[in-house]
Amino acid sequence: MGRMFNFCLVAVLLVGVYGDESSTSSVAPPPTNETPPTTTTTSTSTTDSTTSTSSTTSAPTTSTSTTPATSTTTIPASTTSSPVTTPAPVNDDQFYRVTEDNVTCIMFSGDVKFTVTYPQAGGKVNTTTVKVPKANDKTRPATSSGSCNGSEQYLLVEWGATNKNSNFRLTFNSTGLKWELVHTEANIYMDEATFVNASDIGQELTVMGEFPGLSYVAVDTNSSLTCRALTESSNFTGQVLNSSSKFVVAASAVGVEMQAYNSVPNTTNLQQGSRCEMDITSDLVPIAVGCALAGLVLLVLISYLVGRRRRSAAYQSV
Ligand SMILES: *[C@@H]1O[C@H](CO)[C@@H](O)[C@H](O)[C@H]1NC(C)=O
Ligand SMILES: *[C@@H]1O[C@H](CO)[C@@H](O)[C@H](O)[C@H]1NC(C)=O
Ligand SMILES: *[C@@H]1O[C@H](CO)[C@@H](O)[C@H](O)[C@H]1NC(C)=O
Ligand SMILES: *[C@@H]1O[C@H](CO)[C@@H](O)[C@H](O)[C@H]1NC(C)=O
Ligand SMILES: *[C@@H]1O[C@H](CO)[C@@H](O)[C@H](O)[C@H]1NC(C)=O
Ligand SMILES: *[C@@H]1O[C@H](CO)[C@@H](O)[C@H](O)[C@H]1NC(C)=O
Ligand SMILES: *[C@@H]1O[C@H](CO)[C@@H](O)[C@H](O)[C@H]1NC(C)=O
Ligand SMILES: *[C@@H]1O[C@H](CO)[C@@H](O)[C@H](O)[C@H]1NC(C)=O
Ligand SMILES: *[C@@H]1O[C@H](CO)[C@@H](O)[C@H](O)[C@H]1NC(C)=O
User: Which residue ranges have biased composition labelled Low complexity (predicted)?
Assistant: First the structure.
């Protein structure tokens, strides 16, 4: 199985290398001696057009040429024109940061939300959604704080009106060489607008739990953990102090980028790091499809070669 996989990888790599070679050879002016001289004139005109004019002039010339590989020459032409655009100013930071002594130990970004089923005054239940505001959310401003203290680093995000505010807290732990997310908690103020006719209106709902793929995942120190994919848990606990109300809480997070226990000073960007399992498996799917296709092509090729050899053998015997 392992050998098969290696072979498959090699096959996929070969396909990739071949693809690269075909694209570069189409850009290079000297053609092979098999091609007629009419195609050489069109290829030199496209290389000239990349320096002076836009890709619109090269597009009709590629349509007249018979080889499909020349269509890839339009792609490098468009990429050479792209660096002209200036990068947008980074006024709105997407990250929550905890910084002490010029060391940003914690960075966090992602869409986190809680879906809460709560009991109402009339004995019924209703479901509502509470979103943790993102760092650059202008409509729902939040403040953040935290600690870079060795034994327990945390990030605390707070939003809402005074005395009616909610918060979200991530707690991290470290073994020195690795760090991990050990606790996720939110204290949600149950306002009338969000928790319609809730029996515990005006109280604070505390939810806590674990995110699969993020919680208790050991990550190297000075590196990050990212998770593009959706991670969710249907069994967060929900509790209001001194209340017997039963809450059902589901939590989800998507597009998470985080790091804690970073000790590299003066960094503004996320460190390189690990990806969650869901992201890795989702990236394996196209590779598997590529492998299957490569295998199919190989099978057809082998059967063709075998068939031809048999036929020529039969021809020689006659
Ligand atoms: C942090 O950086 C500021 C300048 O941005 C500098 O004045 C200060 O000394 C630094 N603090 C430490 C602990 O490195
Ligand atoms: C349930 O909650 C939604 C808002 O989350 C609200 O619009 C709706 O009126 C509520 N239904 C009842 C029966 O309270
Ligand atoms: C960090 O821990 C030390 C003791 O180890 C304590 O004195 C200090 O208050 C803590 N700082 C924060 C921000 O929690
Ligand atoms: C944090 O790590 C320390 C040392 O590895 C361990 O003793 C402690 O139980 C951990 N705390 C949590 C909340 O996991
Ligand atoms: C909330 O409860 C009151 C009385 O219990 C009722 O009149 C009202 O219709 C309820 N509102 C909703 C949105 O269910
Ligand atoms: C919640 O789900 C996780 C993973 O599915 C499981 O390990 C844990 O025991 C569950 N907790 C409860 C309270 O059901
Ligand atoms: C909860 O009940 C305890 C005693 O049972 C009391 O001391 C505490 O103040 C109550 N808390 C709230 C928020 O009502
Ligand atoms: C993390 O980075 C700091 C500063 O560059 C360095 O001193 C420390 O040894 C690094 N830790 C690990 C575990 O690599
Ligand atoms: C970090 O930056 C501050 C100010 O820009 C500087 O004083 C400090 O020496 C720097 N620290 C390191 C380790 O580069």
Answer: 35-89
